[in-house]
What we know:
By secondary structure, the chain is α+β, with helices and mostly antiparallel strands. It folds into 2 domains: about 10-220, Fumarate Reductase Cytochrome B subunit; about 240-395, Beta Barrel (Lipocalin). It contains 6 helices and 10 strands. Strands 3-4-6-7-8-9-10-1-2-5 form a 10-stranded antiparallel beta sheet. Helix 1 (about 10-35) runs antiparallel to helix 2 and helix 4 packs antiparallel against helix 5. The longest helix has about 35 residues, at about 140-175. One protoporphyrin IX containing FE binds near residues 18 and 94.
Amino acid sequence: MSLRNTALHYGTVTKTFHWLTALLIFTAIPLGLIASDLPYETQEQLASKARLFSLHKTVGVAIFAVALLRILWALSQTKPAPLHPERKAETLAAETVHWALYVSLVALPLSGWIGHAASEGFAPILWPFGQSLPLVPKSPAWVETAAGVHEIFTKILFAALALHVLGALKHAVIDRDATLARMLPGRPDVDAPAAGHATALPALLATGIYAVGLVLALATSEAPEDAGTPGPALARGTGSWQVQEGSIAITVRQFGGEVKGSFADWSADIDFAETPVDGKNGTVRVEVSIPSLTLGSVTKEAMGEKYFNAEAFPTAVYTADILSDGEGYKAEGTLTLKGNEAPVILPFTLAIHGDTATMSGATTLDRRDYDIGEGQTDEGTLGFPVALDVALTAQRSE
Ligand code: HEM
Ligand code: HEM
């Protein structure tokens, strides 16, 4: 049996690539579908979902590598002629589907991989590379768009695969020709077909189908604003200082990886004077819109009942006194989040130049104080400490 293709037969290398790809694809698809559908109400469900997604991504990246090798190989090979080139429409359909399958072997894993690289932390790829990709920023908008593209491309793959497999069965059962047999191990007798002539039309059609899919996905993607865009979108608050821009960011540990997020909408009422009155330099009241949180690829999950329960508790409030603390200051007060109150001390540094103040502070919260991640008692799945980083600049308004 020849390693290389001939004008009538597929060689062993092509066949091996074909069936290895089929095996990997028919593994990746159920993993993707099941992982997407799995609920994540309990710790076990979330852990299973992450594990299945990790496997899905790992198999998907393997498909990408095998596809590149396979395409390089195919480029060096003769393509065995269709057995019935006189059936023009059927040949065109079959070849368009082959091209669509080739495109999907590259475009589909790539879209998934870009989405993964743009997200933070959830369900790592198990290869020792590929968590990030060059040119792909960590961006919720990219994640959302890549997910839309990935989903539409899976639909195109499903349609192409259905036609491909039905076509192969038709050749085997109805036409009773050697089309399927020559892709299987062995070397069937193949009657030399009448000469047909290859055209670029199938390749163009297949690429066109993907181009339309891509445009549709981009047009319908509801990409959120990028997180990290500085500045609260709510009213900037009242008080003796007006917030100009700033960020409230959190970092959690999920499955051992860091997931970073930030709140886009919040407001702060700040009264502050350098000279203390009754031992206090001022007060602060911060309101944070919980639904404005973006948290890596788990934003939607974070809004759920067991986590922030954003629907029932859309706002978190922090009220505190501002006290001097050695070289810097601290805000000492209470954070009310998801209906639970707990004391929070936020040490911060403050630099005042003229009427502009720049503050930056950090502290660590314990998610259990606020019932976030109810039932998630395993720290390895979702860490207890949540790092909070606050930075802002404010303008003196008096
Ligand atoms: C040829 C390879 C691949 C196939 C056939 C495939 C197929 C699928 C399928 C069928 C789904 C479920 C879609 C739905 O629920 O509508 C899915 C979802 C997903 N896949 Fe893949 N996938 C592949 C490669 C990858 C790779 C390489 C990654 C990441 C490294 C990835 C990441 C994801 C993610 C994160 C989802 C969840 C939904 C989303 O964000 O789009 N996939 N995939
Ligand atoms: C049960 C599943 C499958 C069956 C029965 C099957 C059958 C076949 C057959 C019979 C051919 C030869 C067609 C011809 O000579 O004109 C073929 C070619 C091809 N198949 Fe499949 N296939 C399956 C799965 C897949 C999968 C999962 C992919 C990739 C996503 C795929 C991609 C291709 C491509 C690209 C060719 C053209 C090969 C070339 O000419 O270089 N197939 N398949």
